[in-house]
């Protein structure tokens, strides 16, 4: 009787399986099919095997964009993780100000990505933008539209402004989940603020920080809208990340075969880095 019930239960999973098949598996298999063909038009395509993969792995465009992407993603993590922890520690734990601070911190997360790019595009202009005008007013020659370093800094600053709130809210929830007994014991032992953070708060934040690092890495590694709106990938290719290079290849040049191989390599890199990250975390847990 239990076996019959269990078999019937699979019918409840069937709609989800069908949805996943059409929304994920079918498109991925279509991309795999394109990546092994040279497509001339809708009815003309020739099988080329792994040629596009070999070409993409030797492509300076892919390698330069990949190096730029890793540099950007790791810069984002190095800034936003510590900054998010600091913001969470400074937020009130109780009372009306706690609610107000949560609302204020969450505001950047509610703004659509294209709007964020437009805001910073105006905010950072040296002629009418408050930030661009202020930086130039103190004697720093700043122009994100013509200087590659300024463009990189502006895109990074925009991401920090937009997404540090996510880390702060995750850490805040982790801090509020720590039992009061831990703090009472620390006060009895006359522990310093640093000792409380080092031995009580930080270990308890480990699980939410793992989630935060993964979310921010994956999101920053696939960033497209904000830098596209702000700089268009320029000046030159200084802010052209993997997603923009892929879009230019697939839509701008209509090279569907190389673009499909490019996208699968892109996808596998994200999976590999996430797997390596989880492996390191699991090894640390086992060592303890």
Question: Helices, strands, pairings?
Answer:
Elements: H1 2-35, E1 37-41, E2 44-47, H2 51-57, H3 60-90, H4 96-110, H5 113-123, H6 130-137, H7 148-176, H8 180-188, H9 193-204, H10 206-221, H11 225-230, H12 242-252, H13 256-287
Helix pairs in contact: 1-13, 2-13, 3-7, 3-10, 4-7, 7-10, 10-13, 12-13
Description:
The chain has 288 residues and is mainly alpha-helical. It is built from 13 helices and 2 strands, in the order H-E-E-H-H-H-H-H-H-H-H-H-H-H-H. It has helices at 2-35, 51-57, 60-90, 96-110, 113-123, 130-137, 148-176, 180-188, 193-204, 206-221, 225-230, 242-252, 256-287, and strands at 37-41, 44-47. The chain has a two-stranded antiparallel sheet with strand order 1-2. A hairpin with a 2-residue loop joins strand 1 and strand 2 (44-47). Helix 2 (51-57) packs across helix 13 (256-287). The longest helix is centred in the first third of the chain and has 34 residues, at 2-35. The protein is globular, with a radius of gyration of 24 Å. 24% of the residues are buried.
Sum up the structure in keywords.
mainly alpha; single chain
SSE pattern, N- to C-terminal: HEEHHHHHHHHHHHH
Going by helix content, strand content and strand pairing, the class is mainly alpha
State the end-to-end distance.
Answer: 45 Å
Q: Report the mean per-residue pLDDT as an integer.
A: 83
- The number of helices is 13
Envelope shape: globular
The proportion of strand residues reads: under 5%
The total strand number stands at 2
- Poorly predicted residue ranges: none
């Amino acid at each position: 009787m239990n076996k019959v019930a269990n078999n019937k239960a699979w019918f409840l999973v069937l709609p989800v399986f069908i949805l996943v098949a059409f929304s994920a598996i079918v498109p991925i298999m279509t991309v795999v099919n394109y990546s092994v063909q040279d497509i001339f038009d809708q009815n003309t395509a020739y099988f080329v095997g792994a040629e596009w993969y070999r070409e993409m792995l030797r492509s300076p465009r892919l390698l330069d964009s990949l190096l730029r992407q890793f540099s950007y993603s790791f810069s984002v993590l190095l800034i936003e993780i510590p900054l998010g922890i600091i913001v969470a520690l400074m937020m009130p734990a109780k009372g009306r100000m706690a609610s107000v601070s949560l609302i204020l911190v969450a505001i950047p997360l509610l703004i659509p990505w294209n709007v964020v790019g437009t805001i910073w595009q105006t905010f950072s202009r040296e002629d009418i933008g408050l930030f661009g005008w202020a930086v130039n007013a103190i004697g720093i020659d700043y122009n994100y539209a013509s200087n590659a370093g300024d463009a990189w800094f502006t895109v990074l600053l925009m991401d920090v402004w937009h997404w540090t709130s996510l880390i702060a809210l995750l850490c805040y929830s982790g801090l509020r989940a720590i039992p009061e007994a831990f703090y009472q014991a620390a006060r009895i032992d006359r522990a310093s603020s640093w000792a409380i953070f080092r031995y009580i708060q930080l270990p308890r934040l480990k699980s939410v920080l793992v989630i935060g690092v993964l979310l921010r890495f994956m999101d920053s590694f696939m960033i497209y809208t904000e830098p596209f709106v702000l700089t268009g990938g320029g000046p030159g290719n200084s802010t052209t990340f993997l997603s923009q290079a892929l879009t230019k290849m697939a839509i701008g040049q209509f090279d569907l075969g190389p673009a499909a191989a490019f996208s699968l390599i892109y996808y596998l890199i994200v999976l590999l880095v996430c797997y390596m990250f989880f492996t390191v975390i699991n090894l640390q847990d086992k060592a303890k």
